[in-house]
Amino acid sequence: MGAPAAAAAEGCKRIVLVHGACLGGWSWFKVAAPLRAAGYHVDTPDLAASGVDPRPLRDVPTFRDYTAPLLDLLASLPDGERAVLVGHSLGGVNVALAAELFPDKVAAVVFLCAFMPDCASRPSHVLEKFVEGRWLDWMDTEMKPQDAEGKLPTSMLFGPQVTREKFFQLCSPEDLTLGRSLMRVSSMFVEDLQRQEPYSKAGYGSVRKVYIVCTEDYAIVEEFQRWMAQNYQADGSSDTVEVQEIAADHMVMLSRPDDLVRCLADIAGKYA
Asked: Choosing from 118, 192, 217, 249, which is the catalytic residue?
C-alpha cells in the first residue's frame, strides 16, 4: 500500500477510529493494522459498555458517559497534537461530541456512513429523522426499556437477520460470524441526546469535516447519508463538507478495507 506509506512518511499522524453501536474497537482490525504498518498512530477505543469494556449498558446512563473513553483519549493528548477522528455509524455522533469539546485537538472529523449532527438542531435530530422516516427495516432488532421509570436509555441489539441482510451483506461469512459473536447490547441514546443543546459553531462547527458515503449500505442508505452532509451545510454553516464515496456495505472496514485505508490515508495527508 504505497499511498498510506507515502503519506505517513511526512510524520507520524494520529487517526482515531470510533466504532458504531453494538460493535467495538475490534471492528477496525483490517484497517488499523495496515495504517499502523504505514506509520500512522492508530487508536481504536472501545466506547463504554462496548467491545471489551467491562461495564454493562445499565451503568452508562448518558451519551457522554458512553463517549467517555474517546473523550479521555483526546484529553490525554499532548498540547499541540491533533487527531483525525473517524466515526462509523452511530460513532459519528461520538466524534461530533469530541470535536465540540476538544476542537483544538481535532484535525478533522470523518463520518463513515455515519450519523452527522448539524449546528442548528439537537444532536438527536438526525437519529429522529432516520427513525421517523423508516429508512431502515429493523427486522429482528431488539429494542427494550432498561428500567420501568424510563431513566435509562432504551437498549438495542441487532438480530441475526438484520445483521446479515442490512449491515454485513458484502462481508465474508467469516466476518459475519465474527461480528455476530462479538456484538453487545447498546443504545442509540436518543432520550439523552434530545436533552442536549445543539453543538456549537465555535466548537464542532469549526472543525474540518469529511463524509464518506458507502453507496451499497442497506443500513444507513446512500440517500440518507447524502442528506445528512447536505443538511449540515443547509443550516447556514460557513464550512463545507467534503464528500467521498466507496462502493461498500455498512461494514466497509471489513468488506472493503483496502479502499478505506487509501481513503483515510488521503484525508490524513490533507488535514493532519
From this structure: 217
Q: Among residues 19, 27, 65, 89, which one is catalytic?
A: 89
pLDDT in tens, 101-139: 999 999 999 999 999 999 999 999 999 999 999 999 999
Distance CA 220, CA 252 (A): 12
What pTM value is reported for the model? 0.95
- What is the residue-averaged pLDDT of the chain? 95
Helix-strand-coil percent breakdown of the chain, rounded to 5? 40, 15, 45
**Contacts with 11 (C-beta within 8 Å, 6 or more apart), sequence order:** none
pLDDT at position 245: 98
Predicted local confidence at residue 188, as pLDDT: 98
**CA distance linking residue 117 with residue 169, whole number of Å:** 27
Q: What are phi and psi of 160, to 5 degrees?
A: -60, -40
Q: Over 70: is that where the pLDDT of 183 sits?
A: yes
**Alpha helix stretches (DSSP H) within 21-172:** 29-37, 63-75, 91-101, 125-132, 160-162
Q: Provide mean pLDDT across the span 222-238.
A: 86
Residues 6+ apart with CB under 8 A from 132: none
Active site includes 217?
yes
Choose the catalytic residue: 125, 187, 250, 255. 250
Known catalytic residue at 89: yes
Q: Is 250 annotated as catalytic? A: yes
Task: Scan for cell 436533552, then name that residue.
Answer: 195
User: How far is 225 from 64, CA to CA, in rounded Å?
Assistant: 24
